[in-house]
Amino acid sequence: MYLLKSGFDVNIYEKNGVAGGFCTSWQRNGVTIDGCLHWLIGTHGDSGLGRIWREIGGIKDGEIVKLDSFFKVFYENETLTFYNDFDKLERELNRVCVCDKDKDEVARFLDVLRYLGMFEIPSDIPPELSTQPPKLDLSFARKTISYMTRTLAEYAQKFETPIIRYALENAPVNKRFCVLYFAETLSNLCSGNADLPRGGSSAAMHNVTDRFKALGGKLITGAPVSEIIIENSMAKGIKLESGEIVYGDYTVAACDVHHTFEKLLKNKYPPNAFFDSDADKEKYSTYSYITAAFKTNMDLRARNVSEIYKTEKFDLSGKEYDVLSVRHYGYDESFTNDGYTVLQVFVDTNADDYERIKAMSRSEYVEFKRRTGETLKRQLEKYYAVNGDVELIDVITPRTYERYLNSYQGSFMSFPLGAKMQQPLYARRVNGIDRLYLANQWLMAPGGTPIAVISGKFAAQLIAADAEGKLPKEK
Ligand SMILES: Cc1cc2nc3c(=O)[nH]c(=O)nc-3n(C[C@H](O)[C@H](O)[C@H](O)COP(=O)(O)OP(=O)(O)OC[C@H]3O[C@@H](n4cnc5c(N)ncnc54)[C@H](O)[C@@H]3O)c2cc1C
Fold this sequence. Notes:
The chain is an alpha+beta fold. Among the domains are: 80-191, no CATH class; 288-410. 34% of the residues lie in helices and 22% in strands. Strands 7-6-15-16-17-14-18 form a 7-stranded mixed sheet, with helices on both faces. It has a 3-stranded antiparallel sheet with strand order 4-8-5. Helix 3 (86-96) packs antiparallel against helix 4 (100-116), helix 4 (100-116) packs across helix 8 and helix 5 (138-148) crosses helix 8 (179-190). The protein is globular. The model has no long low-confidence stretch (mean pLDDT 93). The protein binds flavin-adenine dinucleotide. The site of flavin-adenine dinucleotide has 32 residues, from helix 15.
């Protein structure tokens, strides 16, 4: 979109039948399974990201759904709701605190949440083109350092209140991420800057695609790329799996960065910091979901959209869990068809889970999905106060994502950065190749759609600068 606005002709070659990647929905048994957005940071029109979403069409004013809460926890006859409102959230956390020490920590946490509401992810101009030296905001660093250097799991141990501990360890933001990511998400939700586009993930992506085409862009779907053509250290275009060769002045690899280096560049170019991280699985274990989707005729509108239940221990193909994380889709009438809507149950996965699933034969995998769906259905019926039909309609795993999107280990976020782990800095260019740019959620932790969309805008700005001969030389 930004390249079109700068006067370039733009063709997008997309592997699948629709654009949008992870940010998608699909139909099963007459209902819509929204495969992505639980919140979209940048719904506030005054934020930098909010302006980008509006420029590209992903968010339309008047078509935003606001939810009351982030999630609600059910723990041994007690509940705790993470409201999307600073004051209500503070009162609710204080309500469950079992000691003054925890109340002090709640006060500190809320102070940081309110403070984070004043910050946003830089999205104006890529650092490579900035004439200002990077600003080090010492007050920000002082205030948030302990949240940057601690995982959510570690932070949970600071509390003596069992339900707060449990909530932090099982929040919809994985406990392996640093506290700052959880706090930023919650802060954006409480500031009214992380709502949902009406119609969900697909509606947002259709709007973006329509805007792109209206500006003159060409989208070629069902066109997997097999190779980026490099001649004399310069990207000249792409080769499609069909054998067709397409030349262009500039190439943007907007798919998973691992896929770009390993498959599209055939491992011929020195990869950036990614591959050092991949080698250290202990520290940089990937993150994804197994999701079971259910069709239901329950009226869910009065319930919290995301609910987390402490369960008795149950086994899912050899691994024990004591949590049931459920999200309903009755909050948006466009997901409801003939009184039916969808419930999704999420199970967090890591690199070991991916490898276990990947190693399964086709028949083992089919059986694994069937058993997973049935087990999660039993848990749902036991804990979720089901009062209607519940029919299993799909099971999605990291292997699904890998097959559909060529995503590294099926992960949809970048590495969860734990305690004292450096943010790996991923370059937007590839050492030794001119006119090739990267745009993908992997380029900055924690990933997600904000990083994906900012990386696309930055790639366009770098290309425009390159074309004008204003691109600084790589160091
Ligand atoms: C269940 C779930 C919930 C999520 N919730 C949220 C949320 O609430 N908020 C949020 O911000 N993010 C969320 N995310 C994460 C978010 O969806 C992703 O981080 C983001 O969409 C990644 O975008 P991307 O453009 O970087 O990569 P991708 O979405 O992977 O896009 C890459 C595109 O490249 C295409 N491609 C790959 N290989 C080739 C090839 N060889 N040739 C041609 N095309 C190719 C793919 O088909 C795809 O369309 C969620 C994801 C999931 C799965």
